[in-house]
Amino acid sequence: MLTNERILERLKEKFGDRIADTELQFGIMSVSTDSDRIIQVMEFLKGDEELDFVFLTDLCAVHYPDRVRKFDVIYHLHSFTNNIRLRVKLPLAGDSPKAPTMTTLWSSTNWMERETYDFYGVIFEGHPNLKRILNVDDMTIFPLRKEYPLEDNTRKDKNDEMFGRDPRLIRADQ
Amino acid sequence: MNESLIETTPRRINVAANPPEGVTGDGYFATRFEKVIGLARKNSLWPLPFATSCCGIEFMSTMASHYDLARFGSERVSFSPRQADLLMVMGTIAKKMGPILKQVYEQMAEPRWVISVGACACSGGIFDTYSVLQGIDQIIPVDVYVPGCPPRPEQIIDGFMKIQELVHNEPMRRRNSGEYKDILESYGIKTFEN
User: Which of A136, A97, B128, A151 is nearest to A174 (CA)?
Assistant: First the structure.
């Protein structure tokens, strides 16, 4: 039976210290790597006969405004034959972070990467059709970045104090 | 059969269409054309349900046998804007849906009315967020607003009857007036000279 320890051992022997920040959350192991290695890591995880992570369950991003590398792109993998999951994190720096596209390995990541671009502005290099997928085409912001308020600022009739909000906080960017 | 169960007086039929003011005599009835048109339109409104969420479920109930919107002459729900008189917007309208809603409104023939059902359609409701239109009146003119989250069928019917009142009393040339054209143009909706 494939264990988290065994997965880590295989990754370490192949990629050494390019595999970092190992942690266990809810029984699923997380590892992180960098954008130079991510394609090779994923290719290895998918193609290796023992590991056999053939299914990419989800792809998303997280914004950590206080970190140096402000964005994480997160890949969730599932190995059907071993019935085990793995989370791979890819921390990215800069205001328009760039990651290599995963569409060469999994076609299903096409829309997931478009969604991640739509909400966080992560540029997936090599993506065949990187444009907005859920929001209106003429949107100018990446709404899930922390600097943008959740509320719609076009409304004139709402008194923010009545809603328990500090108007100075939500309009801080204006 | 029990005698007491047989109705002895004729059942009173509740006529929704009371005749308008006019002059009546032996075999004729004279009134204003406008009044007759208003009466006919009021009792044969074809609604176009634009239902996107839970208010749409309330509308299904309104349309079904218990509340029975057909009593008001709206038996025929039109799913084509070309044959509809009343646009019923029920539910959250996302900003991405906005242009589609506007297109549906533009495809309707005059005279046309709009009823906005529920908090979301009226003001964005609880969805005070970047992706949701904060009230459909930002893109199309609205005649009657029905509050509620979602409103009960009784409230939708009440709103519908308010529309009927507007339809009934609308002056015939209203849609040709400059004021009406100004309203439409303020929404960026083209008007045609007839």
Answer: A151
